[in-house]
Amino acid sequence: MAANVKIVSEGKSYSYLIHSSFLAIAIILLCCFHSVLWLFMLTSCILLLLFTTGVEIDQDIGRVRKYTGWLHLRWGIWLPLNHFTKVELEEFVVTKPVDSWNRFGPTSSKTFDILLIDVDDEIFELNDFFDYDKAVECFESIELTGLKGENKYALETLKLTQRRRLQRRR
């Protein structure tokens, strides 16, 4: 690993949470019938919960990757940053309408996406963070490599704040 690698870790990955949950249900059902099998499945369940995700930025070589990790091992595909011209930080919100199948009312999911734009203006989504501070940390680290950056979430928040101040003064 290079000396100047910035790691922005999201922590535990919930990608395998459903797998682990079903495995836990199977463990409960099988613990009465087979003593060795449920122990093996319990170990597998715990190991699945140890996966982590995040972003690594190698500032010396000028590359970035979204990684999946287990304990101290990390893997993912490195992307050269010289192929990209711009990095953006955007808020992405998915809202489910009231008249949807669940009938429980509006729900939303908010992520802060790190987008890399290449020389052909094609967008590559590097990562979607649930934590704004982690997204800003990643965004600023990529900006330090020399890419032009635009934090669209901060700009929109600033515009909304200014609009509210104007409305209060009236």
Summarize the model shown.
This protein has one domain (5-169). Helices cover 34% and strands 38% of the residues.
How does this structure look, described?
- β7 and β8 (123-129) form a beta hairpin.
- The chain is flat, with a radius of gyration of 21 Å.
- It has four helices and nine strands; from the N terminus they run βααβββββββαβα.
- Strands 1, 2, 3, 4 and 5 form a five-stranded antiparallel sheet that branches. It has a four-stranded mixed sheet with strand order 8-7-6-9.
- The termini are far apart.
- The protein has 170 residues and is α+β, with helices and mostly antiparallel strands.
Provide the domain count. Answer: 1
Pairing-aware structural class of the strands and helices? alpha+beta
Number of strands: 9
Separation, N- and C-terminal Cα atoms = 57 Å
Outline the low-pLDDT stretches. Answer: none
Tell me the fraction of residues in β-strands, as a range. 35-45%
Main pleated-sheet profile? 5 strands, antiparallel
What is the 3D shape? flat
For this entry, give a set of tags.
alpha+beta; 170 residues; 5-stranded antiparallel sheet; 4-stranded mixed sheet
